[in-house]
Amino acid sequence: MNRLAIVRSLHHEMSSHNDGSIELLTGKTPLVADPTSTAKSDHPDLGMVVSRLRGVRGDGLPQYVGIPTQPFMTQPAYLGLSHKAFVTGDPSVENFAVPNLSLAAGTDGTRLDERRVLVQQFDRFQRNLDQNGSLEGMDQFRSAAFSMLTSPAVRDAFDLNQETAESRDRYGRHLWGQSCLLARRLAEAGAGVITIDALAPKSGMPLYFSWDDHANAQPGWDLTTGMKLRAQYMDPAISALVDDIHARGLDRQIMVVAVGEFGRTPKLSQANGCIGRDHWPSAMSALIAGGGVRGGQVIGATTSKAEYPTERPLKPQDLLATIYRHLQIDPNHAFSDFAGRPISILTNGTPIRELT
Fold first, then answer.
1. What separation in angstroms does the CA of 169 have from each of 150, 174, 226, 230, 263?
2. 327-349, pLDDT tens digit by residue?
3. Structural domain boundaries, residue 45
4. What pTM was estimated for this model as a whole?
5. Total of domains in the chain
6. Helix 223-247 to helix 175-189 angle, to the nearest 10 degrees?
7. Which of 79, 23, 33, 11 lies closest to 346 in space, CA to CA?
């Protein structure tokens, strides 16, 4: 705990999953609430922003990676499709290998170069038809793909077999553990943003591992049982990650943030004899470590039942501003939307001063 900072006083007003996630990941409040949680963002999330501003790396390593998948409620919008997260799949499966990161059988470097030149020639004929920049986005996709296919550094970053058995065991041989380990390898190699969304677990973990703790989430599901179940996977994984970045001298380079899209209701709900809690955006917490953050502290406070902030009320935009500062991204930077209007990365939010 001396390496962790806990923010207790985050809050917003979006009570559905997608809306809350969009606010947290983009810093933009959805204009119309969607209680069905099927909304998609009108603005890019922080990983897409970082991918756009940092640009394509020379070694082909993606700037934005989603483990095992990408956030499904955010879209790159006016930044272009090339800035979506690179999806890894489940790193805990036996003989894990990132899809499409090797050449097809019978293809060597010479043939790859020939195909690249041929694609470029085809594209020249279509330039006059490209009204919305889609070909430019495809060019960026292809450039990154060719670099990845020919880069030993990228293959090494994704290769968990280069870790010792002891290291892999310490993180845990399951989706949460191996995702955190892969995230550390990618961050150490230079990736800008890595998200972990381990809600479709395999490798011996229960099929239901969501944090959506309604009492009627599934037959027989109970809040207490669920918390005990998750702890045995998530606690060792995050603990190992935080210990690892300190042991490797990466605690200023890599920032770890564990946060959901909202909190849970102060009062218990019951259904079918089970106990749960529902959606509650009025008070939520975040765990932060690394990134030069001063650990061993709790920031903010709520009422005794965790209903509302009473000290140091903070918004998701403040958390995002803190992350952008670590990444040396100016949150006032503006992109042009499809209509040519300037859209700032954040329109409000201030880095959390206690963390430095």
1. 31, 9, 23, 17, 31
2. 999 999 999 999 999 999 999 99
3. 4-355
4. 0.87
5. 1
6. 30
7. 23
